Amino acid sequence: MRLRDWIFATLMGLAAAAWGQSSSTDSAVTADFVVALVNSEPITDSDLRMQARIVEQQMREQRVPGLSPAAVREAALERLITERIQLQLAEQMNIRADEAAVDQAEKTIAAQNQLSVASLRQNLEKEGLSAAVFRRQLGEQVVLGRLREREVDARIKISEPDVDSALAAQEAANAQLTNQNINIAQLLIAVPESPSAGQLAAAQAKAQAALQRIRNGEAFEALVSELSDGDRKNGGQLGMRRADRYPDLFAAAIHDLAVGGVSEPVRSGAGLHILKLIDRQSLRKAAAFTQTHARHILLVPNPELSAAQAQERLQQLRDTIVSQKTSFEEAARSNSQDGSAAQGGELGWASPGMFVPEFEQVMDRLRDGEISAPILSRFGVHLIQVLERRRVELSLEQQREQLRKQLRAQKIEERYATWLAELRARAFIEIREP
Length: 434
Known about the structure:
This protein has 15 helices and eleven strands. It is α+β, with helices and mostly antiparallel strands. The protein has three domains: 6-156 and 419-431, Porin chaperone SurA, peptide-binding domain (Triger factor/SurA peptide-binding fold); 177-282, Chitinase A, domain 3 (Roll), CATH 3.10.50; 288-393, Chitinase A, domain 3, CATH 3.10.50.40. A hairpin with a 2-residue loop joins strand 9 (375-377) and strand 10. It is elongated, with a radius of gyration of 33 Å. The two termini are 40 Å apart. Residues 1-10 and 16-29 have low confidence and may be disordered.
């Protein structure tokens, strides 16, 4: 039940819709009619009703608020229009879905539902979706995927400077005092406690004279040895330490300095300090993420087992496990329809994004050892138990690769949205009222 390619995830909605209960409008015998034209190609009401079933199923899984029939129909029509425009472009570019690709797509969906291809076809046909129509729609999705790969994905390149910039921005966001080690050297001009005006003026003049000599090119270390009333060893260096462990006035004075820069004199209870920033090191926070070790029991709804019945059955299993009449592992081996059943439902260590959102969101809320209530995903109904969690740190190269993938995914989505909008703007679209 791992997260699959977006093409097949979309098609799972098609299979789920076919297995779901038909609405009264779907079951009624109605005359078909054209609801929209896309570059003179019609979209019919029957096309729209089928797509609406898919959209409604997916919206329910995603818990989209405001799930009105009008909103579902509008979203379904927009999807059909967008797909039709892309398919027309693919036709012009001679992009095809070969039989081997459609066969593989069909096998993938059958395997995800713990079915043979023959059983998948039988179940779909029982719900009024012929194998020919299903394979045609599979082929369309394969074509859409190939078109997107060619026109969008393949054109997005992430350079090393792109990654450098993203990494620098990430570090800058963390560049607070607690995330820096700094080494400061000081030249101290002592001022007595409660100095007279004359004593303070003399100290200020001495400090300004020393600062001017530094600006004229004299070595800071030499002037420390000559003038400083503080520790003169090692050129007055105070040592590398976290910035927030220096006095606030020191940290503030060197905050905007480049390494090697020298501050204006700053006053403390001890006197006047001229500070030089010797070194600054960013404390790179080890990028880390949480992995979850979980297991599950999956029941797949079918014509003989509704989703409600699957939920009821899993609730009974949960009660049996919680009351310790059986173990989760034994229940999974005996009941789960997932490939993990033989391993007692074990899913291994999972990183964020490995499972579909509706599964992962529930899993992430569970405490270690806790068992969820039955939950519905696009793959079926699950019981989930979290066994343990761990933090995994990334090396610098792994961080860079993670950033590279994030940047590419972000740019692909941005470009895809722009590309679709451009295609739509160039198309002739006529919406006809029913």
